[in-house]
Amino acid sequence: MRSTTTPLYDLSQADDAAVIVEENLNLAVEIDHGLSADLKFISSKFLYDDTGSSIFRKIMQMKEYYPTACEFEILSLQSAQIIDSLNFGRPFNIVEFGAGDGIKTRQLLKKLLETGIDFTYVPIDISEQALADLQENMIEALPELKMKPLAGDYFSMFHAISDAATPNLFLFLGSNIGNYPAEAASELLSSFYAAMSSGDKLLIGFDLQKNPKVIRNAYDDPHGITKAFNLNLLTRINRELQANFQVSQFDFYCHYDPISGEVKSYLVSLVAQKVWIQALGKEFSFQQNELIWTELSQKYTFEQINSLAKENGFIVNHNFLDCRHYFTDSLWEK
Ligand code: TRP
Questions:
Q1: Any domain includes 64
Q2: Ligand 1 centroid to 295 CA: how many Å?
Q3: What is the domain count for the chain?
Q4: φ, ψ at 154 (rounded to 5°)
Q5: Residue 41, ligand 1, Cβ within 6 A
Q6: Span 254-282, average pLDDT
């Protein structure tokens, strides 16, 4: 047993740090940074450990969480039009970032296979478990699909796919882009652009601004699933960084501002409390009602979508919309 006074990750000791699994080091560094800030935050990318990914699948099945159903509708009913607009004229890759369970994407892949078009599906996801489940489901549903899954984060995967000879359709579906603050969203899009060759396409999901109550209900769900999803962050930190968060002493809160289009999600400390994180060898104090910001979910106008595309060098080919006009899959070209 490690003594309670020796942190597992002494971040000031480069030699010790070098032996730490890189993923946990990232978590340690970022949690230290976020919980030491004046306005505490935990990056939403840590929501998706294996448990988190499986809770997120439950979120996607809730009727209040409309984005999944909207995009399912778009990809089910309009895949022929999407395929028509690709116009690659030779075999291509479909590279999906943050593939998740792939149920929506399957609608598009199925149509492509029926059309007899030659392509390879390259799903990229940070969760190995999510990727393994995805592969199993895809093979079962579409046995003839050519598939090359890649586990890792987006940026480290760019080199693995930059084969200029084969055109690419990049998929960045769901409301993934909305989880990046404006500047980071623009940076991500410009790194997509840099990884793409001229003629490559990007199909990217944007959740649109709409009746604010519809948005609020999607994020403040009555079943407590979104709450469990957020609290799982603390369980994960307890497990991976040997911390002693008392999860029941935290609540979930979220807020939609229809003027800015931002949904912000938080954990709330219900009491004044101290939490020890063994891996950092540090104690963190929380005041009663102190917030930990966990997620931004930006909702967009078409003007914002067009200027994001333009700013980063893309041409907007087409906006594919669901029947309620809640959501768009926007097809961009380099
Ligand atoms: N990131 C996704 C989104 O913005 C998933 C999500 C839904 C989420 N509700 C959340 C993430 C609450 C954090 C907090 O739609």
A1: no
A2: 7
A3: 2
A4: -55, -50
A5: no
A6: 98
Which amino acid does the sequence have at 275? V
| Any domain includes 118 | yes
Q: What is the mean pLDDT of residues 120-129?
A: 88
pLDDT tens by residue, 197-239: 899 999 999 999 999 999 999 999 999 999 999 999 999 999 9
Exposed / middle / buried, residue 173 (Cβ in 10 Å: 0-12, 13-18, 19+): buried
| 249 and 318, same domain (yes or no) | no
Is ligand 1 within 6 A of the CB of residue 298?
Answer: no
Relative to beta strand 273-277, strand 282-286 is antiparallel
User: What's the CA gap between 243 and 236, in Å, rounded?
Assistant: 9
In a domain, 70, yes or no: no
174 & 307 share domain: yes
The domain that contains 149 carries what CATH number? 3.40.50.150
**pLDDT tens column, 2-26:** 444 455 555 554 444 444 466 688 8
Q: Which of 45, 47, 255 to mutate to test the pocket of ligand 1 (most atoms within 8 A of CB)?
A: 47
Question: Where in the sequence is the domain holding 224, given as residue range(s)?
Answer: 11-57+219-298
pLDDT in tens, 30-78: 999 999 999 999 999 899 898 998 999 999 999 999 999 999 999 999 9
What predicted TM-score, i.e. pTM, was given to this entire model?
0.88
Tens of pLDDT, residues 319-331: 999 999 999 999 9
Q: Does 119 share its domain with 263?
A: no
Q: Ligand 1 test: best mutation among 126, 229, 234, most atoms within 8 Å of CB?
A: 229
133 within domain boundaries: yes
Helices (H), the chain: 14-18, 22-36, 50-61, 66-77, 79-86, 103-115, 128-141, 154-161, 182-195, 212-219, 225-240, 302-311
Q: CB of 294 closer than 6 A to ligand 1?
A: yes
